[in-house]
Amino acid sequence: MNIYLVRHGETEENKNRYYYGSLDVSLNENGITQAKKAGKALKHIIFDKLYVSERIRTKETAELALGNDIAAVKDSRINEMSFGVFEGKTYEEIKKLYPKDYKCWEEDWMDFAPNGGESYRDFYNRVESFMDELIKNPCENVLVVTHGGVIRSIYCYVLNGKLDLYWKFSSKNGDISLIKYEYGNIFIDSITHI
C-alpha cells in the first residue's frame, strides 16, 4: 500500500506565521502554484482513495492537484490541531497576550491545551485513529491531503508512536511524502519538497 501525503499549499496565514489550525482559509497565489506542482509530480499515479481534512485549503489543494477525477472523503481526524485562543496569532503575540499559558505550553507541549483548543497528545490520538483504520483497509494508492502537524504526527506514528520525535521533521507547504505499508511493516519511503 502506498500512502501519499501532501501538505496543503501556502496560505497568507502560513506566510505570516500564524497559528491557525481551525481557521478555514484559502490558498494564496504561491499556494496555488505549489498545489499545481504537486499535481504534476503525482500525475502518473492512479489513486484508489483521496482523503482531505475539513478545511478548504486541503480541498483546494486536492482539486488543483488532481482536478475532479476522484471524489474526496473528508475526515475530521486529519484536521490540523486546534489552537483554541491561540488561533490567528503569531508566536510572539501568544507569548505577550497569554504569558501564563505560554509558559505552561513551553514546559509541557505534549499535554497542555490552550483554552478552547486541544493538547498535542489528544491531536496525535485522532491522527493515530485515522492511520489505524487506513492500514486495516489497504488499497494500492491512497492520497491524503492534509496539514503539517498531521503529517509530522503520521511520521511519529510510523516510528511506533514516539511523540517526542514530532519536532525532528519538517513539512513544507506542497511537500509530498510517501509512506509504504508492506507485509505488516510501515515506513517512510520518501519526502519530496515541491
UniProtKB/TrEMBL annotation:
Keywords: Hydrolase. It holds the Pfam family His_Phos_1. Its EC number is 3.1.3.73. Gene3D superfamilies: Phosphoglycerate mutase-like. The keyword Membrane does not apply. The keyword Hydrolase applies. Coiled coil: none annotated. PANTHER family: FRUCTOSE-2,6-BISPHOSPHATASE TIGAR. This is Alpha-ribazole phosphatase. It comes from Clostridium omnivorum. The lineage of its organism: Bacteria, Bacillati, Bacillota, Clostridia, Eubacteriales. The gene is cobC.
